[in-house]
Each structure stands twice: as C-alpha cells, then as structure tokens.
C-alpha cells in the first residue's frame, strides 16, 4: 500500500542535512510500487525527484512536487561461470554494505569503492569511482522504469554511456527513468588495484603481507575515514567537485610556474589534476562561514555544520570555482547535483 505524505522535511533524507521540505513524499519498496505510483493521475502531472541515499544532492529550495524515495532491497546471484559471478542488487541497498557483502564472499571488483555513501541505484547514474576503479568496470546491466510510460527497460553497459562521474542518466535521459535494480559482473580471481592514491602506503602501514580484496577494502576505508568527514557528524556530500582533466600542454605550462602541481597522466594529451589541491592553493581549505564551510582535512568537501542553507553552500561553491579559474585558468565542475 503506497502512502503519499504531505509537507515532509527532507533533512533526514540528504547527507548535507539541509532542512528543505517536499510538497509530497512517497517510499517505494518494489518495481510494482513504482509502476502503480506512476499510473496515479495526480502523480503524472507532478514534478518528481528520485531519491536514493541523498548523498550526492544539494537542496537549494523546497521541492514543490513528489519525492520518490527508493527502498528496493535484495541481493541475489543471477548467474555464474568458472571465472565470474553476476550479482543482481536492489536499487535501495546501501552501497557500502553491498561492497562488504561482495568482499566477504570473495567476489572481486568493487573493493576499491568501499565506504562511498549512497545507494546502489544511484551508483551508475554518477558512474561512481575511487582509487583507480569506476562502476563501469564491473557494471553489467540495470533495469529501470520509464516515468512517462511506466514501462520497464534494460540498459546495458554500453547504453549507459558512462564517462567520468557521468552517464546517460545525467544527460539525455535525465529525469526520465527510475532505476530498480543493478547487475554487476564480479570476478572469482581478483585483479588488484593498489597504485592509485595511498593504498599501497596504507597497506604497508597496516602490515599486510598477503594482498587480498579484504585488505584493499580495509585500506580504502582507513584512508577515507582519515580524510573525509562522516555525514552523521558533519553534513556533507563527499567530493563536491570533479577532478578536472586538462590538456597536457596546459598542465606543463602550470608545472613550469609551480613545479609542485600534482597530476595523473591519462594519455599523451590529457592530465587529471586534483581539484582539492587547486582549492587548497586558493586558500579555501578549513575556511568557515557561519554554519557552512570547507572541510579542514579535505578542501574538496563542503560542509554544513548545522543549520546551513543550500543556497549558501551553492554560493560558496561558485566563489571557489571563480577563484580557481582566476588563479589557474581551470573551471571546476560540480559532482553534486543541485535541486
């Protein structure tokens, strides 16, 4: 039985802890719930906001429509062969808990993505990634309901058009589908990814002698906890900006001026520069402005200390973008979605 609530505070539904409200809110537990909901005449005409864990969202105003909270659960093996296991997961499952589920069963491919906040359904929308691994590396397919028709559709890896923190669901198909479940192809024999960031250094500090996907997961968790604030303690949405990818010629020009500028060579033509480093060089790290600010340990994270407004955080982000562009000639794109 679907229960549509009126005038609901969204404070507990977003990790920034912004106290905006929704005109209506409904929680759905199955594909059938979604299809039933979309058939309701009053619902068809309302603006809709699809919500998973609310961890990649900045509410800048009240939402004058229907918020659909996805609670679809379930993890099962779809098929298996000698080398791989295809795991089907409900869109409402907690991402980190799903990663731990896989690690505990020796299913490799997602261990570098440990402790990323949010739900499984939101992961392919953003093509989440960390420490040299992205969703697209293990993603097999997803099932979604088209909002306009209520019909189910399957999207393959290729059809999702994954890019850096990007997919078809942030572009051509934005706001057109509700993801119900996601299927991953995971490996029985792991390929370890330890070269990115501080993973190898952390493994050494932990005294790890024999590499395993659990050891990598533990190392990633340790690193993330040391750098990133817990949303349960300080409101935030993790990395607020994408790491910019710039032409190699431009990177070399910047390095000639400042030899300390870090960069990850993606190809002969493209270098990725850490956005947090750029922001820190502009003097923003640890700055506080009343109820909001830039985190003291990680300049890539904007925070709400309590009672902050979404619009204030948005304006802070715009000031940071302007200062980085003025100093380095690089435009930072946001990873967080504004509503």
From TrEMBL:
One of its GO terms (molecular function) is FAD binding. One of its GO terms (biological process) is regulation of cell shape. Its cofactor is FAD. GO terms for cellular component: cytosol. The keyword Flavoprotein applies. Its main location: cytoplasm. Residues 18-189 form the FAD-binding PCMH-type domain. It is found in: Cytoplasm. PANTHER family: UDP-N-ACETYLENOLPYRUVOYLGLUCOSAMINE REDUCTASE. NCBIfam families: murB (TIGR00179), PRK00046.1 (NF000755), PRK13903.1 (NF010478). Cell wall formation. HAMAP family: MurB. This is UDP-N-acetylenolpyruvoylglucosamine reductase. The gene is murB.
């Amino acid at each position: 039985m679907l229960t549509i609530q009126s005038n609901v505070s969204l404070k507990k539904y977003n990790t920034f802890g912004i106290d905006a409200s929704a005109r209506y809110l409904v929680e759905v537990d199955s594909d059938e719930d979604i299809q039933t909901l979309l058939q309701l005449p009053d619902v068809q005409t309302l603006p809709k906001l699809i919500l998973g864990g609310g961890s990649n969202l900045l509410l800048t105003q009240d939402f004058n429509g229907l918020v659909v909270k996805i609670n679809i659960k379930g993890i099962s093996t779809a098929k298996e062969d000698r080398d791989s296991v295809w795991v089907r997961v409900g869109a409402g499952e907690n991402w980190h808990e799903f990663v731990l589920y896989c690690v505990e069963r020796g299913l490799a491919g997602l261990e570098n993505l440990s402790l990323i906040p949010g739900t499984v359904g939101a992961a392919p929308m953003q093509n989440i990634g960390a420490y040299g691994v992205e969703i697209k590396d293990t993603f097999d397919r997803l099932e979604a309901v088209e909002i306009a028709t209520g019909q189910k559709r399957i999207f393959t890896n290729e059809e999702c058009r994954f890019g850096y923190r990007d997919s078809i669901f942030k572009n051509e198909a934005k706001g057109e589908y509700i993801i119900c479940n996601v299927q991953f192809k995971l490996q029985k024999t792991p390929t370890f990814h330890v070269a990115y960031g501080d993973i190898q250094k952390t493994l050494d500090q932990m005294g790890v002698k024999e590499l395993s996907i659990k050891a990598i997961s533990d190392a990633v968790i340790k690193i993330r906890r040391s750098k990133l604030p817990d949303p349960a303690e300080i409101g935030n949405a993790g990395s607020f900006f994408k790491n910019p990818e710039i032409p190699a010629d431009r990177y070399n020009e910047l390095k000639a001026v400042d030899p300390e500028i870090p960069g990850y060579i993606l190809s002969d033509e493209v270098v990725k520069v850490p956005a947090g480093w750029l922001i820190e060089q502009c003097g923003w790290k640890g700055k506080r402005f009343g109820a909001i600010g830039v985190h003291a340990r990680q300049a890539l994270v904007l925070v709400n200390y309590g009672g902050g407004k979404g619009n204030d955080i948005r304006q802070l982000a715009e000031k940071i973008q302007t200062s980085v562009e003025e100093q380095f000639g690089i435009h930072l794109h946001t990873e967080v979605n504004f509503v």
